[in-house]
Every structure is written in C-alpha cells, then in structure tokens.
Amino acid sequence: MRYPEPPKKKISSETYDKFIAPLNDIVPKSPALLSRGNNPLAIKTTHLVNALIYYHLQEYDSARHLIHDLEKNNFARQRIAPEKGLRRSTLGETLNHRGSEQLLYIFKELYKKAAEAIPKKYEELGELIAIDGTLIDAVMTMYWADYSKTKKKAKGHFALNINQSIPSSIYLTAGKDPERQFVPMILTKGQTGVMDRGYQCHRSFDLLQKDDKFFVCRIKKSTTKTVLKENKIEPSSYILFDAMVLLGSTDANRTEYPLRVVGYKVGNTEYFVATNRFDLSAEQIATIYKLRWKIETFFRWWKQHLKVYHIMARTEHGVMVQILGGLITYLLMVIYCREQFNEPVSIKRIRALRSSIANDIGQNKDQRLQQIIVLLCTLLFWEWT
After folding, report:
1. Are 159 and 191 in contact (CB under 8 A)?
2. How many other CB atoms sit within 10 Å of the CB of residue 323?
3. Starting at the edge strand that comes first in sequence, how are the strands of the sheet with 214-219 ordered?
4. Assuming Cys at both sites, which of 159, 225, 250, 258 could form a disulfide with 169, CB separation 3.0 to 4.6 Å?
5. For residue 240, how many other CB atoms are within 10 A of its CB?
6. pLDDT single digits (tens) 229-266
7. Nearest-angstrom CA–CA distance, 368 and 364
8. Does the global pTM surpass 0.85?
C-alpha cells in the first residue's frame, strides 16, 4: 500500500515579510539583470538583494557561511535562494560583475521611502548633509585598491542626511584617492555639506558658492584669514571669532568670494569652521558642525552590527554591490523600527527582529512536525482497522 507523503508547506516568516515590505514595489521596477550569453541567469535581482539582506541581517562574515545557510537552512533555501539553489561560484560571478545598477536604483528608491517615514530634525538649520570617507580593508589581490606598497584598501565616500540620520549617497574609490572631488557631486542646490578639515580647499569653497551650494567645513586654525568685517559676539557666548574673511595667504590660494569663519572652544580644543551660511547665528553654525559627528556614529554602528566590511567580492564593482546591500539593509531597519515601534534604529530592536524571524521559522518547523505526527497517527489507524 502506498501512503501519501506529508504536504510540503512553504516556510514563511511574517516578521521577515514586514521587514522587506518596502522593497515590494521597488525591486520589480529595477533594471533587469542580463545574461551575457544565451543561457538564462541562475540568479535574479530579487535573489541577489535578498541574499545580501540576509547576509547582513544574520551578521555573517563570509560567502561560505551564507552559501551553507542557503543550502541547509530550509527558510533560506526556500525564501532567499533561487529555486535551483545558489552555488558559491554563481554568487561570486554575480557580485563581481553584475548588480550595481540594480542595487543603486533600489538604494535610491528606498532612501526616498525612508526620508518620507522619518521625522525631520533641525529644520531651522536647513537640509544638512554630512560628508566623509572611510577606509575598507582589502587583500593584495585587489589590485585596483591602491593605498600603499604594503597594504590594499578601498575608500567609501559617504553622505548622511543629518536631519533624518540616514545615508543618502555612496561613491567608491581606491584607498589613496582624494575625497574632495565628491563634494559637488553629492550636494544639490540649497543643501549644506558638513565636513571635517580634510575637505578644506579654497578653490572648492569658491565653486560651491558659485553653484549655490552651502558648506560648513572645519579649517586649520593656522589658515590665513584676511578679515573684511567682524561680526558682534555676545560676551556670554562660547564663540571666539565671527567674521567675513578671505582665506589664503597669496593670490594663488586665496578665496575669490568672501566667506564666514566662526571660531569656538570645546574643552581645551578650539574649532574654526568656514561657511557661506550667512543667515544663521554663530552658535547655530557651531551646532551644525557638532552634528557632523552623526556620520561617525553611523559608521561605527553600521560596521559593528551589520559586518559590512567583511568583503565577499574582490572587484571594485563587487565591493560596491556589497556596500549597497549593507545600505539597503540599514534603511530597511530604519523604516522597520519607525513603523513598528516609532523609534530610531537600535541594536535592541534589531536583535529582537532576528529573534522574531527565528521564532517564526521555528513555529513552521513545529507545524510541520505536527502534520507528520497527525499523518503517522492516521496511517497507524488505517493499519489497525
């Protein structure tokens, strides 16, 4: 007698579905991954983005770890991997040569959703964009990641929307490449770029003013300042200096357009920042520069809790794809924490998210086990009767 097999039920997770829900109307509209030959691709955009989200969400640190889960974990095999499975070579080929256009589109569209969901802070200060670069450890075979004779590093050039604490832009270069060139590419008209003194460049200050783009940039204390007009400072203020100036000691490096320099002291450290925000008080200018620290906080949280710099790819394209996957995962976390708890993203909520997904999967297993027990009882009853 041939007994019927237990029905195969697809493993689901209501929590995971809620988490990735913002992507439901974005991924289908993203550019399609194209095959280079006549054979159909083994992996589609939805598989690639889900694999990267799963990789970062589970805090994995290698492609081998991810592939093992996609093969052995029923949930990952059914919900994350393609129908015929995902081999490590296929994942590597896709990461290193495909997907950047698709994930960049998804990141930009998801950023718009996050910007709509998150309340704005500091609106009286304008649209603030922190700009900074961070180094990413590479291996010697990554020839494009020039840094020094003995080390290979890539550099990510990031922009963070300070008003909502969400990443808004990313560029990738070799580790030794300069950072200043990306400022005009990142900023749009009316935005205020907030930068550390590594971005001090008098020619760049002139170009930004010419393009109606604003900046608040720390400068070296020793920078020559030709004072054109001093602004009044209240005796009780922590402001040390506030004046309209020209920066630079000679015609070759002097700014063409006048700008404002505000100096203030925190503890034993004196800060001087150059800006073309003439509409704000000196105290507000100092506050804007203090808010630049938010991008450092983002870097630290992102690296520690999403393991984004455990690089699976080796090409510049592949590293960019993986970083975009990490940014997409972070934006999903931001939206999830806001919509479900009305809170900013936190590791407490992310750990609870991971635990909830695991519980959902466990309940699927329990249901499956119950189905098998019921079926066995039915079969035994048939045999006994």
Report:
1. no
2. 26
3. 166-174, 153-161, 128-137, 192-195, 214-219, 269-275, 259-266, 239-247, 225-230
4. 159
5. 14
6. 999 998 889 999 999 999 998 877 899 999 999 999 99
7. 6
8. yes
